[in-house]
């Protein structure tokens, strides 16, 4: 199944990067303003990072749940409009404007949401709240219980809880639900707010002919409701320690590899159960997004398994993934899948065969194209149409930052290939992406703003200082909007006749 035959383009921007007076971007008015600006720039795609509740390190790829939303993204003004808060509670400290300072922001926003919850309890719960709790019970009940018990254990990971709770003994869980009922309801409340705000934003985006690309990490976090409540689906020992952990061997980003630490699936168990957990996960994400990017797609073909007690990812081994059995089961349950396969790195040829068997588009990153010869698969003259081209991803430096640090061999190759002098390299790459034969083109907003390494979103294998970049309203300029619109029109990525629109909201 080819995702689309249309030529479309869009931007990569995580909601935490929106302007706001509350220290972190959210799903409020600036998000709607961005959708309007995208539509005026004739961009039809908006790609986000995972939207789950983040833990230590603030990475959206290490969330407490594969299903839940991040309460930090809840727009405070909505709490005022619902009558749960007054203007006094909404007054925020003077947070940093250009970056997210997660510690103070988390503390302030948790207090704000707790105050809003107290206001919520003074009213009769709306029908939409009760309906949400019922409709999302397949994951919500376990998630809220997990978070409540975690709070009770002062944030300790679940495999360090009391054994009866760690091992989900029926009597211990029943007692916890009774003891922690108010905290559990608080987590229901936060999730209801997040999903109601997100769904309103998504409807608005779709009405503006903007389709949202979501991001599904192949693995879940070790300290997550998923690992705790579905322990049999992972390779754990009797005390909840991972027998093996996920990562990748030494690569472009790190000479010792990347040890992610995520637990690895018990694929044999999942096959026996018809991939039921995965079907529910993808079904839930198809309600949130129009298109899904699968991060580390190669893990479905083969994956790097590192001993659970290892300190680096060097001494791992390749193991076979579920391959076609997985996708056949998902497609049988949900129909054709609007998936983008993140197939970067140095994958086995079988990864491409698996991708192409289902017609999933792969990723092409322009920053990876330079310094070798004309056969480099990331050079635009080698693209298939069924591909998504990026100037860079969330794991790359900005294009300007990359060029400033690149070798002279790479810079020379760029200049000769594009017939440019390198003085406007970010927009040279944007033009190249838009002009390429790839059906879809995605540009990080930082490149549109011609920003340097100070605006980088993430540096793989570096634990601190990531996921913090934010932009200011004045940076979303008319000249950038006009430039994107011109390129979209020039290279046939602007027009989406109503009868040809794709990515309709999935209701399966």
How confident is the prediction overall: mean pLDDT? 95
Structural class: alpha/beta
Largest pleated sheet: 8 strands, parallel
The tally of strands reads 12
Low-confidence stretches are 498-508
Report the total helices.
Answer: 19
Give the fraction of residues assigned to helices: 25-40%
Query: Termini, distance in Å?
Result: 18 Å
What proportion of the residues form beta strands (DSSP E)?
5-15%
Please tell me how large the radius of gyration is: 23 Å
Gross morphology is: globular
Neighbour order of strands in the largest sheet = 9-6-3-2-1-12-11-10
Descriptive report:
This protein is α/β, with parallel strands linked by helices. Helix content is 39%, strand content 11%. Helix 6 crosses helix 9 and helix 12 packs across helix 13. The radius of gyration is 23 Å and the shape is globular.
Features:
19 helices; 39% helix; single chain; 11% strand; disordered C terminus
Topology:
Elements: E1 8-12, H1 29-40, E2 45-47, H2 76-81, H3 87-90, H4 102-121, H5 127-135, H6 137-152, H7 163-166, H8 170-179, H9 181-207, E3 211-217, H10 225-229, E4 244-248, E5 258-263, H11 267-272, H12 276-288, E6 291-295, E7 302-307, E8 317-320, H13 324-334, E9 339-341, H14 349-358, E10 362-365, E11 387-390, H15 399-405, H16 408-418, H17 425-435, E12 440-444, H18 445-448, H19 478-490
Parallel strand pairs: 1-2, 1-12, 2-3, 3-6, 6-9, 10-11, 11-12
Antiparallel strand pairs: 4-5, 4-7, 7-8
Helix pairs in contact: 5-6, 6-9, 12-13
